[in-house]
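#structure-requests
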Amino acid sequence: MITEEQRKARQARLGASDAPILLGLSPFSTILDLYESKVLGKYKPPTPQMIAGSFLERGILDWAESELGYGLDRSVCMEYKDDPLFIANLDGWNDEHKVVVECKLVSEYMSSHWKAGPPDYVIAQITQQYFVTEAKQAVCVACIIRNGSPSLKLWEVPYFGDLATKIKVLGRKFWDEHVVPQIPPSLLDPSVPEWSGARRSKSQSESHMLGPFPEEAGSQSAIPEEWRSQAETTDEQKHPLLSHAH
């Protein structure tokens, strides 16, 4: 779990986990939740899954190291050189190969969102990690619980240039128009796509104890196609071990 000092540092910046919220892709938080965390220091308490994930992360990253064939620095924080508002708290980082590794523990309830690989809210998070670190490659490694049994999976995630631009624009707009003047956004604020508010409203109207989370958050169509048009995966970004790690 993050320390109180780390929490305060995150409050003053936009971390990679904030990117899917800015884009309206998060199945867990709204743009208003993000505002309250930055301005009021108001955070949701950690769930049992989050607590478990923080303890199990070490083992998942150990497995990733064995698959990749090199070591990883753990719990690394970096700042975007072009705009220090944006930071990335990395689960794993290899400086020699310039590789970001994002680690996830996926519950039985959320496992359906991972059938085709990392869902869009995770891709958005990794996109910010890419541009903050200037990484050559990003990997998502997950322990997924299905039918009561865990399995370990590893995927290479390409860099989406248009999506990175969208994160930078929406992040700066959100900060300058809402956080700095302390003006709360609405769920249908123009700084986020209109469909995100509609999805969130639908999710809330149908909510029960466990959700449901919107299906769009885990679909490959949640991120508009034009944001995906700059999927930049060069030969240099590919790692031979990843070709069979799906």
